[in-house]
Amino acid sequence: MAIEQVDDEPESAAKTIPHWYSADNDDVPTLVDGDGVEVFDADGRAYLDFQSQLYCVNAGHSNQRIIDAIADQLARIPYVSSGKHNDTRNELVTRLLEVAPESMSQTLFSISGSEANEAAVMLAREYADAPKVLTRWRSYHGATYGTASLTGDTDTSSYIQSHAAMTGNAKFLPPIPAAFDAESPDELAEQAANHLEFVIRNEGPDSIAAILTEIVAGSSGGFTAPPGYFERVRELCDEYDILLIADEVITGFGRTGEWFGAQSEGVQPDLMTFAKGVTSSYVPLAGVMMNAAIADYVAEEGFDIGQTFAGHPVGCAAGLAAMDVYEDELLENARSVAPHLESRLTALEERFDVVSSVHGRGLLWGVEFTDPETGEPFVDPRVSDADNPVKSVLSAAGENGAIFGMGRPGIQLLVSPPLCVTETEIDEAV
Ligand code: PLP
């Protein structure tokens, strides 16, 4: 029997498979270096990283204060298990509680945003002694079995949604114009809150442990809620005895101009999850913050999901340093450049008929594209690349040295630079 000789390695074996929907995208650069807002590929080409990679390198690339803190921790004691005390971890708990919304009283660490959301949901279900969790359509909460089930964006996560396994949850409509027939933001807030109340009553308030929601939608398109909406959501949670969990995985750590998105909305959550920006993503770290009543429950009953890498001291050291950087320099900068980013992006609406709306807050924006001829969104690029301006813009941006994110495929471009971005860099990228 002849054995066929294979001379050449298949080309694909030389590269890792690009993540997300870019499997067909050979222009994804191999990044080897970074500095502030810029990243550099293997050929030395510079790109303005207006995606902060995955909306997470909030302090910018290669911040020396964070790198030094990581090195110091590694040199001292690299790992202490989550069941024991560690000085760096204890210090980070105190520091987080200093800047969190007033309702927050304790922190449990995790590893990733998905796992933090899983933990928050497990804790909420245990504490409330009820099974259901409500989340909204057009949301992203993670890629584990549970969080994939809670995610309400079938476009961006159809792969993971096919693994969705958690039952006993229900979805509600997000407070966005496309979901209601409202003539003003006030009317939109009222209609969306009334709809949520309908879902609560229909599901049975006693069966609902929590509502889990992003405060500003991240990868589903940078949507903000109309004024007054979250006030009503809080009132509904109080009236029906339901916990409010804020998913701050993207909106935490200065992304919306405040430490947390909940503060930019004036809402006090019962539980709050964070990840990404806590360490500027230099190393993985995530966590769940909780109000005093839930913290007391945990102190009495225990809540031990014991993950080996939860609250890793190196992550906690990075978190402390990143928080210093945010406090000393970057929160202020994010607030001061955000209006410039907003005005440069909203000007695109006037200038291009394919840009149908621009929405967001702070340094998290969605630029929405609609086919001007049909008034409908462009096609999903995984189905067809034809005439999809979002993908063309991403490609052209890449060729011209700028990286943006894609929200709903074929519909939104996401703009989310590191907090150290300057007005000149914003002008260049836009
Ligand atoms: N929640 C939100 C709002 C997110 O955007 C993400 C990730 O992008 C997650 C949760 C999941 O976080 P991770 O990817 O760290 O598991």
From TrEMBL:
Can the keyword Lyase be found in this entry's annotation? Answer: no
A Pfam family annotated for this UniProt entry: Aminotran_3
| UniProt-listed PROSITE patterns | AA_TRANSFER_CLASS_3
Molecular-function GO terms, alphabetical: pyridoxal phosphate binding; transaminase activity
Is Zinc-finger given among the entry's keywords? no
The record, for InterPro entries, names: Aminotrans_3, Aminotrans_3_PPA_site, PyrdxlP-dep_Trfase, PyrdxlP-dep_Trfase_major, PyrdxlP-dep_Trfase_small
According to the lineage, what is the superkingdom?
Archaea
Q: Keywords for this entry? A: Pyridoxal phosphate
Family, per the entry?
Belongs to the class-III pyridoxal-phosphate-dependent aminotransferase family.
Q: What is this protein called?
A: Taurine---2-oxoglutarate transaminase
